[in-house]
Amino acid sequence: MKHTSHWRRLELKFRSRGRPPGTPSRSRPLVAGCPGIINAHVHRATRGRVAQPSGHAGAGHCRPHVLKGITAACWWLPQPSQGVSTMDSEDEFYDTVFNEVLESSCSDDEDDLYVAAAHIVAEANDKQPYRVSIDEHRVLNRDRQSGHSKLFQDYFSDDPTYGTNYFRRRFRMRRHVFVRIMNTVEEHDDYFMQKRNAAGTLGLSCLQKVVAAFRMIAYGVAADATDDYVRIGESTALESLRRFVIVVVQVFGPEYMRLPNEQDTARLLAIGESRGFPGMLGSIDCMHWTWKNCPVSWHGMYRRHKKEPTIILEAVASKDLWIWHAFFGMPGSHNDINVLQRSPIFARLAEGDGPQVNYSINGNDYTMGYYLVDGIYPSWATFVKTIPEPQGNKKKYFAKAQEACRKDVERAFGVL
Q1: Which helix (DSSP H) or strand (DSSP E) does residue 292 occupy?
Q2: For residue 369, which of 57, 209, 267, 357 is within the disulfide window of CB 3.0 to 4.6 Å?
Q3: DSSP-assigned letter for residue 389
């Protein structure tokens, strides 16, 4: 073979390439259909010194001699899972490349092409990602059962550590309401059912997952803030919150997130009449919801009289705190009138499809309901406002009654 020094340098270069210590064996069989990629790598490795033979059919196919070098490189990679015999060491691989693949009848350019192809395949396989054990990874033994037992004893046992007042303040609802929601969620989505894993260990209970979701909703805490008490991981807490919200919307949405039907309208009118306001459908108002993570560039649009940016919620609530209308998303720089002009609350009424209302006041019959509002709202026929600076007992009594009933929506905002 000519140019001995040239091949000696190539041999030393190849033999200096060792497998990294601790590298696990991996299987990468030769994949058909990639000769175009191989040709590109070979052309780059040989700097274009090896040309395609005359009469070659198609520029996308590599030479047969290149495939021999590639095959040798691929056989050097261990493939125990496929039952293919492998070379015992990299020395055997290099001996095969130099003694068997490189034929004496081939030219120097062709031999150079063999070695370049084998070198490219070996280099590409060394760069492939492989799975190794992570020493830093720790499996936490959270002792989920003790977490469930402590949570149950604190709030849900017959003699709980924290009574009903603590429960209502910390969960923002009564215990029977919480239990009803939890049971409904568990029946609707089997993700909340307590199961055993492959090792037979009990997983998280429905109580732990729902409590974690409620804590994040009620207090806006991070996902891992409940880990030390509820014994639930961050990813599991986020997944529980996502599924919890979906189930609540699917199950309770048709009942609570809808417009009043005929029965609801009759009930609202009866409540209003018992309080001295026949024809009243509820009280309407707006509240500003603080947006903690508002982008700094949006502060000018979402900030008005308050220092922090807010989002406006318009709602209509009844005496029993049923919010049957909610319009959310307007920037905090707007006022109640701007929000009302964009709100869909009177869209049905404008189309002649409003609730059917019939009542009589002082001998006059009316067919359109109304809402109790504060002084900023316009003087429309559907709004009843208080009397500013009332004079006389009659006007004072009306102003006092109107302002008291109008607080229904304020109470609803306080619950939120």
Answers
A1: none
A2: 357
A3: S
Amino acid at 359: Y
d(CA 236, CA 213): 10
- Burial pattern 254-272, b for ≥16 Cβ within 10 A else e, equals eeeeeebeeebbeebbebb
332 within 8 A of 312, measured Cβ to Cβ: yes
Question: Would you state the torsion angle of the CA atoms of residues 385, 389, 395, 396, taken in this order, to the nearest 10 degrees?
Answer: 110
Average pLDDT over residues 83-91: 49
Q: Which residue, among 63, 67, 88, 69, has the nearest Cα to 77 in the 3D structure?
A: 88
d(CA 134, CA 112): 40
Residue 206's CB is within 10 A of a number of other CB atoms, namely 19
Q: Is 311 helix (H, G, I), strand (E, B) or coil?
A: strand
Distance CA 374, CA 286 (A): 10
Which residues have CB under 8 Å from 345's CB, separation 6+?
284, 314, 316, 325, 327
pLDDT per residue as tens digits for the range 277-334: 998 999 999 999 888 888 999 998 998 776 889 999 999 999 988 888 889 889 999 9
What does 192-250 look like in DSSP terms, one character per residue? GS--B-TTS-B---HHHHHHHHHHHHHH---GGGGHHHH---HHHHHHHHHHHHHHHHH
Is the pTM here over 0.90, yes or no? no
First to last CA, the chain: 87
